[in-house]
């Protein structure tokens, strides 16, 4: 997604230096409530987390307002098997409520489908109403509940699995242009 752009947003590969802009959000207990890990304590810890590791099935991109270089969030895709990826996303508090998450996740889905993915899914906490609403608006279907799936910083939690098949994907009208094919 190098240089992938929508009208209001751009996605670029996540850099360790994005930790400076995203640390206030990723250190915030309320913002990190639904993550499977506790909030970050030190910006250096977040920089290390953002440094790509060889062999990781996860790829991450910084969400940027068009024309700016400070990250306002992150979208990620983790390859689970051929043609199937799990997605994740987080937006800074001051960027929420403007449709940026929907736009950025739609750009990510476009990319994954262009790469040949047949299925994209997300794992979310049953109490994470914002994430559930986002996934539903994007056309994801609730596929199931995994009981006591995660031991997290807020206790043992269930997971809801939302899935989207490539043939079900209908880009919402949000002003974003489809991504060009990989390598283009």
Automatic annotation (TrEMBL):
Matching PROSITE patterns: GNAT (PS51186)
Start and end residues of each N-acetyltransferase domain: 9-167
InterPro entries for this protein: Acyl_CoA_acyltransferase, GNAT_dom, Ribosomal_N-acetyltransferase
Domain of life assignment: Bacteria
Protein name: GNAT family N-acetyltransferase
């Amino acid at each position: 997604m190098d240089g992938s752009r929508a009208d209001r947003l751009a996605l670029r590969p996540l850099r360790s230096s994005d930790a400076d802009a995203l640390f206030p959000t990723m250190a915030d207990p309320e913002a990190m409530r639904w993550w499977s890990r506790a909030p970050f304590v030190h910006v250096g810890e977040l920089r290390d987390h953002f440094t790509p590791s060889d062999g990781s099935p996860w790829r991450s991109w910084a969400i940027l307002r068009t024309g700016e270089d400070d990250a306002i969030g992150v979208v990620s895709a983790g390859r689970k098997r051929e043609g199937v990826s799990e997605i994740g996303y987080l937006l800074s508090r001051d960027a929420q409520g403007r449709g940026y998450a929907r736009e950025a996740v739609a750009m990510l889905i476009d990319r994954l489908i262009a790469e040949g993915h047949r299925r994209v899914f997300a794992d979310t906490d049953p109490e994470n109403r914002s994430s559930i609403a986002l996934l539903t608006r994007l056309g994801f279907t609730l596929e199931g509940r995994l009981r006591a799936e995660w031991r997290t910083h807020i206790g043992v939690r269930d997971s809801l699995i939302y899935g989207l098949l490539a043939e079900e994907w209908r880009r919402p009208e949000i002003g974003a242009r489809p991504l060009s094919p990989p390598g283009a």
